[in-house]
Amino acid sequence: MWPPKDWTDLKPSMVWLLVVSSLIVVSALDYATGVALSFSLFYLLPVMLAGRWLGYRIGVAVALLCASVWYGVELLSHTVIEPWISLWNGLVRLCFFLLFNHMQSLILEALVKEQQLARTDGLTGAINNRQFYALLEDELARHHRFDQTLSLGYLDVDDFKAVNELGGHNLGDRLLKEIVVTSQKTLRRVDTIARLGGDEFAVILPQTDKAAALKALTNLQSALNKRLKQFPGSASVSIGAVSCHKPELPVGALIKYADELMYRVKRSGKNGLLCEHIEPPNTVIEPRP
Ligand SMILES: Nc1nc2c(ncn2[C@@H]2O[C@H](COP(=O)(O)OP(=O)(O)OP(=O)(O)O)[C@@H](O)[C@H]2O)c(=O)[nH]1
C-alpha cells in the first residue's frame, strides 16, 4: 500500500526502487537540461533514502554511485571543457555525499538513543512510568479483545531507606538494579517489569490468571528476598497483585487496586503477597487510607 502508514516500516525492496528511480529521474533531467538548471541537491535524495532505510554502508555505496552518475552525466553532456575539472568536482561531490551520509547516521543514532531514554528508567534500564502506562493500556485492550485474563503486580521494597542509610546511596542503587535483573531472570519473557519511581515497581503478566499470578509472584518474591539478603538492613518485598478477566478498567484504576493491596501487605507486617481477582462490573476501588 502506498503511501505507507508508518514510514519507519518501509520495505527494503521499496526503498531500493525509490533509490534507483530517483537517481534515474534526476540524472535524466540533469542530462536533458545541461548547465541551464542545477540538480545538485536532488542527487542527495537517493543517498538520503539509502542511508536512512538501508543502513550506513549502503548509504556509502549509493553516495559513490550518485557521484559517479553525476560525473558521467557531466562528461556525456560536454558541459566541462577540462576533464580534470570534472574529475575534481566529482570528488568534491563524493566527499559531500559521504559527509551527508555520515551526519545523517549520527543524527539517527542520537534519535534512537533519545527514544530509548524516553522509554526507560536511567538507573535500572527497566521501562519507566510513562512507557508502563502506555504498554498496560495496550495490554488491557488486547486482553479485552481476545477475552483473556491479565495480572498486574505492584512491588515495593520494604525498609529500603535503611539500605541507603547503612550502605550509602550507591548500594541502594545497586539494590534497585538487582530487583530488575532478578525479576527479568525469574519472570517469563513475555512479562514486563517497570520502575514506577523510588523503590516501587510493577510487573505486567499477560494471559495470567490469579492462580498462575500467585505462583509466578511467589517465585519472584522468594528470588528477590534471597538476593536482598546481601544488602545491609532487612530489606524484603511487599507485593499486591490483581488479575482481571477481559479487563474493562482504566489503567489507573487497575494500578490503584494493586497498589492498595500492596499497602495492605505493608500494614499487616510487610514481606508478603496479596493477590485478588476482580470482575470489572463489581470493581470498587477503595481509596488509600
Ligand atoms: N539509592 C536510591 N534511593 C532512592 C532512589 N529513589 C528513591 N530513593 C529512596 O528510597 C526511599 C524510599 O523510601 P520509602 O519507600 O518511603 O521507605 P522504606 O524504608 O522502603 O519504607 P517502607 O516502604 O514503609 O518499608 C527514600 O529514602 C528515597 O530517598 C534511587 O534512585 N536510589
UniProtKB/TrEMBL annotation:
**Transmembrane ranges?**
15-42, 54-73, 85-103
Q: Which domain of life is it from?
A: Bacteria
Enzyme Commission code: 2.7.7.65
Q: Does the keyword Transmembrane apply?
A: yes
Name the enzyme's class: transferase
| Keywords recorded for this protein, A-Z | Membrane, Transmembrane, Transmembrane helix
Reaction catalysis annotation: 2 GTP = 3',3'-c-di-GMP + 2 diphosphate
Q: Which GO terms describe its molecular function?
A: diguanylate cyclase activity
- Stretches assigned to the GGDEF domain: 148-278
Annotated protein name in UniProt: diguanylate cyclase
Which organism does this record belong to?
Answer: Simiduia aestuariiviva
